[in-house]
Amino acid sequence: MLSKALAKEIATVNLVNPRDFTVDKHHRVDDIPYGGGVGMLLKPEPIFAAVNSLPRLPSSQVILLTPQGSPLTQTTLQDLATHYQQLILICGHYEGVDERIRYLADREISLGDFVLTCGEIPALALINGVVRLLPGTVGKVESLKAESFEDGLLDYPQYTRPAVFQDWPVPDVLRSGNHQLIAQWRRDQQIKRTQQRRRDLWEQWVKGKSSEFGVRSSESDGKSD
């Protein structure tokens, strides 16, 4: 899907190598940390030079991929896909980056509470998540609206043929042809699955529904006969 989007020029991806912006004969982009410690840090000079070499579009964001950043969520992807024409991603390496590199970034994003050997993997995940939300990437827009996290809940269970596989049947309601019952079953499954598997999402969803109900109640109470 991503390759097709790039082929159709819905989005473009350009790679910039910080080593091309070094001035020493060994093209070093890392150095030992002040104060001692394990590992190497990305130096600020080549990163600043690489980022500053890029032409900027009117709405662009520089993003540092780091375990210390805010968690990447569907809401973040939607924000990036909707409001920005250009994303400049800084991929960490080694033990991390010189702290001054953070001054380049408009925001810092993390893929989760774990550490990888490089920032290219989180960058690829972010690119994939953003590009698939751009118009023309996904054939049916409806499929984007019926996915996990789109309304704060996990997705419902889905089945295809055969109707029975190793004694596991497709729920009867999905074969009933009653679209109202199917929609209700799917909604119930979303709520149940989220409550069981992602308590954090469930609590946020309940809180959001409570706030929404409160607003509607206030509006109703304010209406005069």
From TrEMBL:
One of its GO terms (biological process) is tRNA N1-guanine methylation. Keywords: Cytoplasm, Methyltransferase, S-adenosyl-L-methionine, Transferase, tRNA processing. Pfam families: tRNA_m1G_MT (PF01746). One of its GO terms (molecular function) is tRNA (guanine(37)-N1)-methyltransferase activity. It is found in: Cytoplasm. Its main location: cytoplasm. Belongs to the RNA methyltransferase TrmD family. This is tRNA (guanine-N(1)-)-methyltransferase. It comes from Crocosphaera watsonii WH 0402. The gene is trmD.
